[in-house]
Amino acid sequence: MNGAQAGSPREELLRILKGKTAAAFPETVLLNSPVTEMMKRCGAGWPRAHYESGEMAALAAEIHRSTGFNAVNLPWDACVELEALGGSSISAKSDVDVPAPAGPAFDSPESFVVPRDILERGRFPVVFDAVRRVRKTLGKSVAVVPLVEGPMNISCLSVGIDRMYRLVIKDPGCAGRVLECAAELCIAYGRRLLKCGGDLLQISDPFVQGITARHFKSLVLPAYRKISRAVEGPVFLHICGNTKSLLKHIPESGFSAFSYDSPAVSTREVVQALGGRMLAVGSVPTVSCLLEGAEQDVIDASIECMREGVDILSPSCGLPPRTPLKNLLAMVEAIHRWNEAAERGVAPDIDGMRSP
After folding, report:
1. Which residues, 6 or more positions from 52, have their beta carbon under 8 angstroms from its beta carbon?
2. Cα 41 to Cα 305: distance, rounded to the nearest angstrom
3. Which of 47, 151, 175, 274 could bond to 182 as cystine, CB 3.0-4.6 Å?
4. Residue 350 within a domain
5. How many domains does one find in the chain?
6. What average pLDDT does the segment 173-194 reach?
7. Helices marked H in the chain — which ranges?
């Protein structure tokens, strides 16, 4: 990783991810993606930004410029690894589309192999160049947070979702081997992303919500530990959906933070289960609040998250492209109000921080 600028939001984020105490609530919002208003502002947009590094970097930089989130995510779809492994995807065709998985990479789980030149294939070079570009554009004050699909996601998409779930139950030895190969790809990809200028990695692994806690512990956790030991940089894990049964095991992953999906699981449940062993990232509901709610709804939900103990604020999941920009700005406003109340020595609460 590059050296962080003293006192910058990026530096503060990296400090707390390393276990340091924050002086104030971090003015950084993770788990972000561009919305159509940003695309109109900067002239770069989907679908081109999924495939061209200059457009991808320009749009990622616009996330920060439009919101002040102090962190930018890229890329924004789950197909980069799948395509490089030889799987097929449906191309994005509009400003609300992302590439979508269409077919597995392997005919059988036994044939799952990661080629030596995997990082030269598919869109990997596009993503690496985009990370270098956005790092240069934003300098050292804003965190660059590349997305890596998790080992369960890579496994499911590469050998087939139903087939992978059946393997977990009927042939855990084979499932474990596939997950180990997928973890090796996560490591190689993650290391290169950090070398290109990324500050921390977001690992997205929503398919784990479809397995039992027992299988999660015996099969997926070893893959997570393998990644956390091998990647020299902070990693936060995001799992969509209901993760209640997995919460007690997630801190054993070795990752720095966990991003959860509200309201499928509550902030209180997550904070209690993590018990200070890793940071809680979350979790303003993306649809009911950010997409469909008013600005005050977003402020209220953000403050409630902070009041219940999250360490870093974020949307609960990927942002719908039509999310109003004003609602994203409301998340930043909520953080400012929270920190201003704390500076005054006032106990932050929702009613006390409403607009007059």
Report:
1. 126
2. 30
3. 151
4. no
5. 1
6. 98
7. 9-17, 36-42, 53-67, 80-85, 124-138, 151-159, 161-170, 172-195, 213-215, 221-230, 267-274, 295-307, 325-343
Residue 354 has pLDDT above 90, yes or no: no
Tell me the pLDDT band of 23, cut-offs 50, 70 and 90: confident
On whether residue 189 sits in a domain, the answer given is yes
Please give the structure tokens belonging to residue 343. 């500076």
**Token duo for residue 198:** 């990324």
* Residue 178 counted as domain residue: yes
| DSSP conformation class of 77 | S
β-pair type (143-149, 71-74): parallel
Complete DSSP assignment for 142-181: SEEEEEEE-HHHHHHHHH-HHHHHHHHHH-HHHHHHHHHH
257, 237 Cβ separation under 8 angstroms: yes
Virtual CA dihedral for 123, 124, 129, 132, nearest 10 degrees? 140
User: Model pTM?
Assistant: 0.95
Range of the domain at 300: 9-17+28-344
Does residue 134 fall inside a structural domain?
yes
SS (H, E, C) 84-108: HHCCEEECCCCCCCCCEEEECCCCC
CATH code of the domain containing 123? 3.20.20.210
Q: Going by DSSP bridges, is the β-strand pair 143-149/100-103 parallel, antiparallel, or unpaired? A: unpaired
Residue 13's closest CA among 234, 268, 294? 234
Q: Which residues contact 294 (CB under 8 A, 6 or more apart)?
A: 327
Q: Which two tokens stand for residue 355?
A: 């607009």
User: Rg for the chain (alpha carbons), in Å?
Assistant: 19
151 preceded by a cis bond (ω within 30 of 0): no
pLDDT (tens digit per residue) in 56-65: 999 999 999 9
